[in-house]
Design brief:
Length: 1229
């Protein structure tokens, strides 16, 4: 039963809609109604299309496409695919019917704009150019290859054209699909209701309006028929509203012209010329409009001057035959005139043998009965002839029913003409004006008009939409001879009357006090007259012909006659069970209920088409719904309430509905219910008020749900502007009435509550996402390790449990940061544009969100074993985000984070300080002083630990400035203390090594000693970084440690020089044994006398070799060039000073040859070695060196003289001692 009733409702809707669609241009019923502003809708992406787009992006990332791209673009596409295309929110957006290519493009654009901003600038390439280039590549990926794109573009272009411009037939087709009406059922309704007949439909409107007025009158008499109102006094106002709406429809109908004639002729042929042989195109007939006051409906107000008819007469002269008495070369032409048509026209002149024209003459006349006169002439070539010769003429009577096709007519020839069978082929038509509804010859008799029964030419003329006149005409008269209006009359078929002579088929029109009897000679003609009068009178009763007569006449009626056609359509409709719907009275329908069904089905159809409509109807659908409401009196509040109800129902099911659309409907209903309509106070039905309150509560709950789940209801901020529209609608819903604005604090409180819930919802979803990913990850790991020993695996799981928790909380922290950054990128702007104070609520939302995270973080930290530091990456990630976010920096969660990790940092620094100190103590005790890096293993380990500790603490970017400075100062002091301790230990080891080394010429500085030197020097170079802040010695730790290291390096330098001074002193002690005057000098001299001078220089060469070996070792092992040069300068200077002092002590004595040879070797070789090591010349040629050099020259000269004398065998007397001493002093000076 329910399904049958539903089908009947749809059939009734089809009837009503079919009528309304035909009359869109007739009734203009929606004139002046407010319409929603529509914008062009994009094509939505279906589930299959989304899968295809994903495959195209996968192919691009796999390198299977021909699109050239750089690494930055590829990384952006990867991020876009992972973050959005593969996410649940993208699927939800597609399922909501709101996703379009433009949405995908805008989301990608926002993602790349942020990435492109951080790219380095390139000369000649702006970032805007890069953005546009990337978007073009993105569009290419989304749209696919050219063949697919071409087919899709053609389908979309067709759909777009169909969306914007829809004709009547397209609207028929749309609503057949919407209502589920079959095409043949629609055709049956169309034919049976005569929907192609505008007169019939105008009459239907008049009957409907009359029925509505009667319904209003019944309500006025019986107030129980009225609906319940919120105020009893609204009953009278409600009746007045109904009358006003009906009067508006009547006024709209009355304002339409009733005699709109066509200006286009059926034949596009040449025109006649004037009779005086001058060529001119004839005038086209123009339709006259009868303008009459809609209030003048009585017979007394209508005069003959109000009845104006205008006819267009077309006459086409095609050819003439039977002219034999005229030479074939003579010229023929025809003239034509119409009585009352004004000018006379003629054809072109043609030869008799070629008497063909096919030319047309157009005339405009004002009387329905006219005569057409056609004459045939032959041109008279004689000079004295005054006129051409007439060969024949033809007179034809025309009526508005004349519509003759081309036929031959015999012309009347002159008496003396030899041609008696002249024929002319003519086509004649007399167009009937629109205000002439029916015409023809009838027998008629009345009481006051047409008092005698006789045959007259009658015409049913429409003066206005509500005024019709029955007029009789005579030939050549434009004004009716007699007339009567049909106001108040009722027409019906009548049985044959035998009292009257003439006429076979009778009908009559009757009203109180007057009856007119009509008769025709043809039943089809009678039927046409009855139907025309039925439409004109607007009566409720539809005339039905007597059954016996109808059956007899239908059998005799021609197949194509109007009567047989109408009867055949009615029979077909009856056969298919459509008669019930055809005969139904629209005034008896519950149009409010039917409209609800219609709007629901239209909305379903709209949401399932290929456009992302978001609930907006297209222009054609809106227009039809407007027409239906205006035509059948559907209340605007009822319309918008049902619309809101349907939109809310679909939005609650997950479909995307534009909040702006709901805002419009809600504002209309609110202004209606609260009595603040723009057009004044209107009636409010109690059911409307209850329904409005129910929808208001539902709408508020729905909006709260949307704001709470804004990330999932508006994925990535799409559809564009939807979130802002929802926030605006919240403010409207919270208003108590349409005028008083809602306090800002109330709106703020509601949204704050929603955002608090949103924080919990978002964090719960993130936790669930992390749990699912973690379970999948560890299940895979378990399957990979299922062959391991069960006990060992269990023990490993238990040991790794705290670390797993840290990994989980770190992943959750990253997800939370990504979520809040998405909120900032895609939602913050819309939130702030809706309300100025929304920034504060977003901050509160973020703080609540982080407070939920803080609970889990604190639980994870408390579950960690003592003195473990795996949680510091969590702090780094969170602190870096919070510090770079101005609204969150220094906030509640940031402070809570500092409080959680400050004790861990302090404890970590304490333990690291103790650990480094212990490693120094143990390391230097066991240090072997092997080269390692820039120093030894202990020093490198200590410096690495200090540097790692300072880097780690610095990378924390501790937000509290005071605590950060405290940590910095402590670490710098720790570094200074540690370096000082290491340097002291190194110096102790150095001194020990130097003390234990030999003091003979066999000494070579050990590599360990060089490593120690490098250790100290490396400490000096690293002290600036470890003890100063960004190169600035704020706490003077670097200055102190640098001075200390400089002192220690000087000590090491001194010990090195002292070692060689000891060796040199030992050599000089040995040489002192050869001094003149000593007790042992003669013995050593005698021992050496037998040896050569080369043997005397061995001691000097040993020293030089010792010096050279140590210098080479230092040069190879020690890394600081400046330290090496300083050491060598000090060694050279000390060496020259010692030798100079030793020689000075022997100023009064001559040197032994052995002494001279040894010292000469040491001085010369040392000078050369130190010169090779880069000692400056001014240091080498010091005063001591010059003194030594002078002394050695003198001694060598003396030795040379003595040797020469000895070899020659001559006894040469030696100078006295006093003279030799004097020469030495002069040389030394």
């Amino acid at each position: 039963m329910h399904r049958s009733h539903r089908k009947s409702q749809l059939k009734f809707l089809s009837v009503s809609l079919a009528v309304s669609l035909l009359l869109l241009t007739l009734s203009s019923s929606s004139r002046g109604r407010t319409r929603l502003v529509l914008c062009r809708r994009a094509f939505k992406i279906q589930k299959a299309q989304l899968q295809l787009i994903k495959e195209r992006f996968t192919a691009f990332l796999n390198g299977d496409s021909q699109i050239a791209a750089d690494e930055a673009f590829i990384n952006s596409v990867k991020y876009y695919v992972e973050i959005f295309l593969k996410s649940e929110r993208c699927t939800r957006l597609v399922q909501s019917n709101a996703c379009s290519n433009n949405d995908l493009r805008e989301i990608f654009k926002k993602i790349i704009e942020k990435r492109i901003r951080i790219l380095p600038d390139v000369d000649g390439l702006s970032k805007e150019t890069v953005t546009n280039s990337w978007l073009i590549k993105f569009d290419t990926i989304v749209k696919g290859d050219d063949d697919q794109r071409k087919g899709l573009r053609q389908a979309q272009n067709t759909a777009t054209a169909f969306e914007l411009v829809q004709n009547k037939d397209q609207l028929y087709e749309i609503f057949q699909n919407i209502l589920g009406i079959k095409k043949f059922e629609h055709q049956l309704l169309f034919n049976a209701l005569q929907l192609e007949n505008s007169d019939e439909q105008a009459a239907a409107i008049r009957r409907e309006l009359d029925g509505q007025m009667q319904k209003v009158a019944a309500m006025e008499k019986n107030r129980k028929l009225l609906p319940k109102f919120i105020v009893k006094e609204m009953e009278s106002l409600f009746l007045e509203e109904l009358r006003s709406s009906i009067n508006l429809l009547m006024a709209n109908l009355e304002s339409l012209p009733v005699s709109k004639g066509t200006t286009d002729s059926k034949y596009g042929l040449r025109k006649f010329k004037r009779y005086n042989n001058s060529f001119r195109r004839s005038r086209r007939g123009t339709a006259s409009s009868i303008k009459s006051d809609s209030g003048e409906s009585s017979e007394a107000a209508l005069t003959k001057l109000d009845v104006v008819l205008s006819f267009n007469v077309e006459v086409i002269v095609q050819e003439v035959q039977g002219v034999k008495s005229v030479q074939p070369t003579k010229l023929l032409y025809c003239t034509m005139e119409v009585e009352g048509g004004g000018e006379k026209l003629q054809t072109d002149r043609v030869e008799v043998s070629k008497a063909h024209w096919d030319t047309q003459g157009d005339f405009t006349i004002t009387h329905p009965l006219t005569i057409v006169k056609v004459r045939l002439f032959v041109e008279n070539s004689r000079m004295i002839s005054m006129s051409d010769k007439e060969l024949g003429k033809l007179l034809v009577k025309l009526t508005p029913n004349t519509n003759r096709t081309a036929e031959w007519c015999k012309m009347e020839t002159p008496k003396n003409s030899p041609d008696h069978d002249v024929k002319i082929r003519l086509t004649m038509r007399m167009d009937r004006p629109q205000n002439l509804k029916c015409s023809g010859y009838l027998y008629v008799i009345g009481k006051h008009v047409w008092k005698k029964w006789k045959k007259r030419f009658m015409a049913l003329v429409q003066v206005s939409q509500y005024t019709f006149a029955m007029c009789s005409y005579k030939e050549k008269k434009s004004d009716p001879t007699e007339m009567s209006t049909l106001d108040g009359y009722t027409v019906d078929y009548t049985e044959p009357v035998t009292d009257y002579d003439g006429g076979r088929f009778f009908f009559s029109i009757t009203k109180e006090g007057e009856t007119f009897m009509f008769a025709s000679d043809d039943d089809n003609e009678r039927h046409l007259w009855v139907q025309a009068m039925y439409r004109a009178t607007g009566q409720a009763h539809k005339p039905q012909p007597p059954a016996s007569i109808a059956a007899t006449n239908n059998a005799k009626a021609p197949v194509n006659s109007p009567l047989s056609r109408i009867q055949g359509d009615a029979d077909k409709a009856r056969k298919h069970g459509m008669d019930e719907f055809i005969q139904a009275d629209p005034c008896q329908f519950d149009h409010a209920d039917l409209f609800k069904i219609l709007q629901t089905l239209t909305l379903d159809y709209r949401l399932n088409d290929m456009f992302a409509s978001l609930g907006w109807f297209n222009p054609g659908q809106i227009f039809v719904l407007d027409e239906y409401c205006a035509r059948y009196g559907v209340r605007g509040c009822h319309r918008h309430l049902t619309y809101l109800d349907e939109l809310l129902g679909r939005a609650e099911k997950g479909l995307a509905i534009d909040a702006t659309l709901m805002h419009y409907s809600f504002a209309f209903c609110a202004s209606h219910v609260h009595g603040n309509r723009p057009d004044g106070i209107g009636t409010v039905i109690l059911a409307e008020k209850d329904k409005f309150d129910e929808i208001k509560d539902r709408l508020r709950n729905f909006l709260e749900y949307q704001i709470t789940n804004f990330r999932f209801c508006f994925p990535m901020g799409r559809p564009e502007g939807a979130l802002k529209a929802s926030l605006s609608l919240v403010e409207r819903v919270l208003m108590k009435d349409i005028v008083t604005p809602v306090p800002a604090e109330e709106v703020k409180s509601l949204i704050r509550k929603c955002l608090e819930s949103a924080a919990l919802v978002n964090y719960t979803k993130i936790s669930a996402q992390n749990k699912s990913e973690d379970d999948a990850k560890h299940s895979t790991s378990h399957m990979a390790n299922h062959h391991n020993d069960s006990h060992h695996h269990h023990q490993g799981s238990m040991d790794g449990q705290p670390l797993r928790k840290i990994e989980d909380i770190l992943h959750i922290a990253e997800l939370c940061i990504d979520l809040l950054q998405e909120n900032q990128d895609f939602y913050a702007e819309e939130f702030k544009s809706a309300f100025d104070w929304f920034s504060d609520l977003l901050v509160e939302h973020s703080e609540i969100f982080w407070s939920l995270f803080a609970v889990d973080l604190e639980a994870v930290l408390s579950s960690q074993p003592p003195d473990t530091w795996n949680a510091f990456p969590v702090f780094q990630v969170l602190n870096d985000y919070l510090s770079n976010e101005p609204s969150m920096s220094g906030g509640k969660f940031h402070q809570q984070l500092k409080d959680m990790f400050a004790p861990l940092v302090v404890r970590y620094v304490d333990l690291m300080e103790s650990s480094i100190a212990q490693s120094i103590h143990k390391g230097f005790e066991k240090e072997t002083w092997k080269p390692h890096g820039h120093g030894c293993s202990s020093s490198e380990d200590m410096l690495w630990k200090l540097n790692a500790l300072q880097t780690f603490i610095s990378d924390l970017h501790w937000p509290d400035e005071v605590f950060a400075k405290h940590l910095e100062q402590r670490l710098k002091l720790m570094a200074a203390d540690m370096i000082e301790s290491c340097v002291k230990r190194t110096l102790e080891a150095y001194e020990g090594w130097m003390a234990r080394s030999r003091k003979s010429t066999d000494f070579v500085i050990p590599s360990e000693v060089c490593v120690m030197i490098n250790v100290v020097l490396h400490f000096k170079s690293e002290s600036l970084k470890l003890c100063a802040v960004s190169g600035v010695d704020k706490h003077q730790y670097h200055t102190k440690i640098d001075e200390f290291i400089e002192k220690i390096s000087g000590e090491m330098n001194r010990h090195f020089v002292d070692k060689f001074v000891e060796i040199l002193n030992g050599i000089l002690v040995k040489l002192s044994r050869y001094d003149e005057g000593s007790l042992l000098a003669p013995i050593f001299s005698l021992a050496k006398a037998s040896t050569t001078s080369n043997i005397s220089g061995d001691l000097g060469r040993q020293y030089v070799n010792c010096l050279r070996s140590s210098m080479e070792q230092i040069r190879q092992r020690v890394t600081d060039e400046l330290f090496i040069l300083a050491m060598f300068e000090r060694l050279y200077t000390s060496q020259m000073t010692i030798i100079c002092t030793w020689l000075t002590e022997r100023m009064d004595r001559a040197l032994n040859a052995h002494q001279v040879n040894c010292l000469s070797t040491i001085i010369k070789k040392s000078f050369a070695e130190f010169e090779l090591q880069g000692i400056p010349e001014e240091v080498l040629n010091s005063k001591n060196y010059q003194t030594i050099q002078n002394r050695m020259r003198l001694e060598e000269a003396t030795a040379a003289v003595s040797e020469t004398t000895s070899l020659s065998g001559l006894r040469v007397s030696m100078p006295k001692f006093s003279m030799l001493e004097k020469a030495k002093k002069m040389a030394l000076s």
